[in-house]
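Field reference: sequence -> structure
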Amino acid sequence: MKKLFIIFAVLCLAAPVMAAEWDFYGSARMTTFRVDVDEDVPGQDSDTDTTWTQQGNSRIGATVKFNDQIGGAFEMSDSFGKRKLYGTYSFGGSELLLGQTYTPTSTQFYSNSVYADDGDLLGFGQFYVGRLPMIQWSIAGFKLAFIQPNVVDYELTAESVVADTTTGVVTTTAATNYDTDVDLPKIEIGYKFKTDMFFAEAAAGYQTYSLDGGAYEYDIDSYVVEIGGGLTLGPVFFNLAGHMGQNLGNYGIYNARGGFDNEADLIAGRSDTNDVDGLGYLAVLGFNISEMFTVEVGYGHEESEIDNSNNTEEGDQYYLNCQVNIAPNFFIVPEIGMITTSDDVTTTEPETFYWGAKWQINF
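Structure field:
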């Protein structure tokens, strides 16, 4: 009797799964690069290393269709961390999405640069905040999403260590943070129009939260506006994109290699901030030589400047690669490129020169 009960329970649990249509997929990726980092410091040699490892964005997942209205998907990384997990409900020609996936400002990748685990010029011209939990409504290319906000903590009191000269007792005062108050989710909208020859899209986002330090309260407001598009003429394709915004570090922009100070500064003695203006753009040109070879060259630029400062931080990436299709779903992408960073204050201009390849099998 107990065995029959167990079998019945298993069948009840499995029935919904069996009723749905599951389409599983996976992608195994290896990065093999030689990287030369020159910090541009007098008397200090450049550091050259080999990267030979599985990429963190290797993945396994599935898309699911329960019926004509209900569906969803999940996707896990190489360490089985959550990349995507969402459900969808279709009605009246539109779709409601609940869960974690790409936000409206982070759905289009204009570059196929493979260095740094398919870096795609992220943080060097390509705006990106990633896959976040959200409630999103979409219809006919338009998206409206209410997204989990990105909150950056600020220290209210700096950490201090004080020694009593009489008793020798050491007292440590730990750093504390402002009380963070969030009233609204991050809000994004986006629209994309696409044909066989070209596509164009625009997106924008806004986020706000406050920091309460008792005597003073600060409002941290962030926004971003981005546009982009692409054109395909026979074997040639061209992509172009740009974005601008305020306090993009607070907003949650991917900060490539930690290169930019793009978070608002609190002004002591009054409830005000020095905000950071951010700007980025990129251009990509490619040529499909044959079904086996595709050559691509690209350039991306990112910069940020804080209010009341004459210092602009900048970063640039240049690359040339070629996708070599070995077999269906198996390809190699050799790439060579250069990354440079600089600002208007320091004299050093660090450079990263790299060459190597990404290897990928989709299954």
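Note: The longest helix spans residues 2-19.
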